[in-house]
Amino acid sequence: MSPRFMSPMVRRRPLPENKPLLESNLPPKTPEKSNDEQSPEQTPKEPEESSRIAFGTYRQIRDFSLVLLSQGIVHRLERNPEGPFEIFVTPENQQKSEHQLRLYIKENPPKEENPPIPLTLSLQPIWVLLVPSVCTLMDFGNLLGSKMHMLGISDADKVLRGEWWRSITALTLHGDARHLVGNLVTGYIVLNLMAYRIPLARMVPFLAVASAFANFCVSLTVRTDFRSLGFSTFVFAAIGALSIIEFRLMPNETKGLLRRFAPLCGALSLAVFLGLGENADILGHAYGFIVGCLCGFIPKKKMLRWGAPTTMADLLWTTGYFCLFFFAWKMALA
User: Fold this and answer.
1) Which of 73, 110, 117, 227 is the most core-located residue (most Cβ within 10 A)?
2) Could you give the dihedral angle defined by the CA atoms of residues 302, 304, 310 and 316, in that order, rounded to the nearest 10 degrees?
């Protein structure tokens, strides 16, 4: 009897020992004969050796199995202890099987779900970083005297007394040129990576609101005698969002729990490395990273995987980003 076909498309429940898998697959019962009456054809044969013709992920081997099944080629599937799935055929079917798989691969070239993208520099982060750059330079130039700095900084006492807009305006101010340049460089790198996955106009407004909320949470936590400023909260929110996006795009076949959570672990390590320093707003960085992770679940996965072209609707999101800071400063200077 030829080897039984094993298909990954059908799940079979474990059966009691010595019970056949399918009764219909068994040959019809014949009267038992004595050992002397048995013909040579009825003598059980030793199983033939099999040859491995392909190995890969479950999805790849499943497709190969369907190709062989369509050609009536008997084969066997196994899971290698090291991880990949393997497909075996008898030696007489090896050449035919390999030919059919080569034809299939030629007509259906394999595509990765989340292919790596070559590193390029995007212009998208520039308009995002324009807000903190302009506002900080206006503050450094004393165009409004010291009024702009005093009214825009996040003061926990004043925020809790109703001046909520300080949580937004504080994102656009910096203590000195070194502080500004550091946030702009880090922000550009993170936003440039995020631009590979999704147009920034569809993420930045959410990150801005989340960053303002993070500053407000800092005020709720500290409550008294605490002042903060800087775009770093937004940068850490972007790091958190990017880590979740990359986590969601990890292939399902990824082996090992640590490998699957690698984007989150890497982003957390980067956040700790960048967030600790002299006069660093550690609470603001921590809250920013947390709310940024929540923002990473907002876009649809299909949009992230395949990318999305810029549309006219993105102009509305861009306008909303600038309007958020415009109205916050209008409230502060009123």
Assistant:
1) 73
2) 90
Per the structure block, which two tokens stand in for 237? 């929110």
Q: Give the tokens for residue 175.
A: 């203590």
Residue 239 is encoded by which pair of tokens? 């790091």
Q: What's the count of helices (H) and strands (E) in the chain, helices before strands?
A: 14, 6
**From the centroid of its chain, how far is CA 70?**
36
Q: The whole model's pTM is what? A: 0.65
Task: Please give the DSSP secondary-structure letter assigned to residue 27.
Answer: P
Q: Which two tokens stand for residue 304?
A: 């992230």
Q: For the ranges 39-43, 226-230, 313-317, which has the lowest average pLDDT?
A: 39-43
pLDDT of residue 280: 73
Whether the CB-CB separation of 245 and 302 falls below 8 Å is answered with no
Which tops the pLDDT comparison, 161 or 37? Answer: 161
Cα separation of 238 and 270, whole Å? Answer: 12
Would you place residue 163 in the very low, low, confident or very high pLDDT band (cuts 50, 70, 90)?
Answer: very high
Percentage of the chain modeled with pLDDT above 90:
36
Q: What is the DSSP letter of 49?
A: P
Q: What is the predicted pLDDT for the residue at 57?
A: 80
Residue 182 · residue 235 · CB < 8 Å: no
Q: Six-digit token pair at 52?
A: 């491995």
Name the amino acid, one letter, at 333. Answer: L
pLDDT at 24: 33
- Intra-chain end-to-end CA distance of the chain, in Å: 90
Task: For 143, list phi and psi in degrees, rounded to 5.
Answer: -65, -30
**Is the pLDDT score of 27 beyond 60?**
no
Can you give the pLDDT at residue 44? 43
For the chain, the maximum distance between any two Cα atoms, rounded to a whole number of angstroms, is: 113
d(CA 289, CA 276): 13
Residue 172 structure tokens: 């656009």
Rounded to 5°, angle at Cα 213 from 209 and 215: 120
